[in-house]
Amino acid sequence: MSKLLPLFRGAVEAWECDQMRHMNVQFYMTKASDAFAQLQNRLGLSPAVIRSTHKGLRFRNIRTQYKAEVHVGTPLYGLGGVREVKDNLITGFIHIFNSVNDRLSAIYEFTADYADFETDTSLPLPDEVRSAAEVLADPHPDSFQLKPFAGALMPARPLDHMFESARGSVDVWECDQFDHIEMRHIVGYFSDAATHIINSVGLTREVIRKRNLGSAALDYYSEFHAPIRKSTAIVLKSGLIGADGKIFRFGHNLIDMDTGKLAVTTTVLGCYFDMTERKSVPLPEEFTNYPKEKLLGAQL
Amino acid sequence: MSGYMESYRGQVLMRECDLLGHMNIQYYGARISLAMCNMFHVIGLDPDDLKNGKRGLAVVHQDSRYVAELHAGDIIHMESAVVGSSERTVTIDHRLYNSVDDGLVFSSRMTSAYMDLESRKAIPLSDAIRHKVAELKIDGEDAA
């Protein structure tokens, strides 16, 4: 039995593409979430079981690497599997491919635990889920292997020079059947914040357009510390960790304002590209001239 | 069934469910739309062809059957097959399944016209599409 599982098939909708004319990061997450639901079923956690027990797998951390942009109408498919079961954690991966050329477009590597969705507490893996995961566990040496995330990671604490980059409340239509915000909308906050961070370094939309520049995320690493539920007031605090050569590095802390708890910590690597050539270019001077003392990296 | 291929795989979201507590009909159509993007590729229309060739396929007729309910969190997949064609049209049969038990939940047979997107008129299928459709086409009665 193949341990590499078919977990997703779809396409890029017109409304999933942003001003960079490619699929926005939050819609990659939608596809990965669909794939994760299919993977849970393979582990004995069918939708009916999850609905009746109010328990299932949830992400503890996710690494996402974006390998190639995809555009409106592009058919996509997703494969994935389990890499390891250790203690009460399952590590796995989801790969999203462009169906036209079988090119790898995005990679998700995750660690998940088994949780009660009512109390948001972590639970031991049920025996049947552990057994199913162990049967599927494989290092998958023939599938793409990510190198470890290099460089500074955003810590789970506030830093000086972070600023508010997004604010909102969690709407009903952003939630799953257990009143938790869908992963897509968490990534959507990070996506919205990017423009504010760019603005904070002194770039405006007009300048970006005149220079024919676009920006793209290359690598995300997120850690999930607390749940975000329906109607919760949330604020995102962000800052520039560093900028060198072609790569900028942002840090985000997503905070539940009701409890004051830090819910999600994320590090983002990205670049700028020429909108016509679709090739990366050196960072705008506004990034490289950003005061070094304000870089979050100076505190790490 | 031979000739059918996977054209969509995903899940039902909470926000797609209506006051009856099941997935609203508009989202069945959304799954067909995604499946069609995959079928465009299969019959020889890739996204660049669509953009550069200014050609596309537009639905002119559809027959659907809703067989079983879907609820928030359900995992689903669609299989599609070419079941007919004419000088200017392609007919594709779509079948949506609950991925847990492979039970049929929805089927839809759709005829689409090949369009010139500048004149907004149906035109004859390209030779490449005609050949691919002939190669893929299964017995339409078998798929009924």
TrEMBL record, chain A:
The keyword Disulfide bond does not apply. SUPFAM superfamilies: Thioesterase/thiol ester dehydrase-isomerase. Keywords: Hydrolase. The keyword Hydrolase applies. InterPro entries: 4-hydroxybenzoyl-CoA_TE, HotDog_dom_sf. Coiled coil: none annotated. Belongs to the 4-hydroxybenzoyl-CoA thioesterase family. This is Thioesterase. The lineage of its organism: Bacteria, Pseudomonadati, Pseudomonadota, Alphaproteobacteria, Sneathiellales.
Automatic annotation (TrEMBL), chain B:
This is Thioesterase. It comes from Sneathiella litorea. InterPro entries: 4-hydroxybenzoyl-CoA_TE, HotDog_dom_sf. Pfam families: 4HBT_2. One of its GO terms (molecular function) is fatty acyl-CoA hydrolase activity. It comes from the Bacteria. CDD domains: 4HBT.
